[in-house]
Amino acid sequence: MNSVAMFVSKFKAALVSVVLVAGLFCLAAFPAAAATVSVKMGADNGALKFVPSEVTVQQGDTVEWVNNKVFPHNIVFDKVPGGDAALAAKLSHKQLMTRPGQSVESVFADLPTGEYSYYCTPHRGAGMVGKVIVEG
């Protein structure tokens, strides 16, 4: 093999390596798409509970609460990592929802990881409580 052919062969191999490494960096630079998790406020059978009562989300995900049965409902966070009352208030939706299908959302982005507990004010005594677990 002549020296020009060897140079071209080595150049191609080096170029392929650079492209592959650059591609891996690009994949790592783009986080996974954020997801939306839906929680029913009131079970289909009319039970006063959130369905599901516990959800696990990743940073950037959204939780959507949908008014389902036995109105009215709301979402009030009472326990958040670090006991930050301002954060609990920011995530809460205290206004009562009275129509089926009505919904509210909270985005769990750039928040401390851990457990976020919430309840429905009118039905807390009946056990209508829930939890969002935020990971990574």
Summarize the structure.
With 136 residues, the chain is an alpha+beta fold. The chain has 2 helices and 9 strands.
Task: Provide a descriptive summary of the structure in words.
By secondary structure, this protein is α+β, with helices and mostly antiparallel strands. The chain is 25% helix and 38% strand. The protein has 2 helices and 9 strands, in the order H-E-E-E-E-E-H-E-E-E-E. It has helices at 3-29, 85-91; strands at residues 36-41, 50-51, 54-58, 61-67, 73-79, 93-97, 103-108, 114-119, 129-135. The protein has a 5-stranded mixed β-sheet with strand order 3-9-8-5-6. The longest helix has 27 residues, at 3-29. The termini are far apart. Mean pLDDT is 86; it is low at 18-28.
List the helices and strands and how they pair.
Layout: H1 3-29, E1 36-41, E2 50-51, E3 54-58, E4 61-67, E5 73-79, H2 85-91, E6 93-97, E7 103-108, E8 114-119, E9 129-135
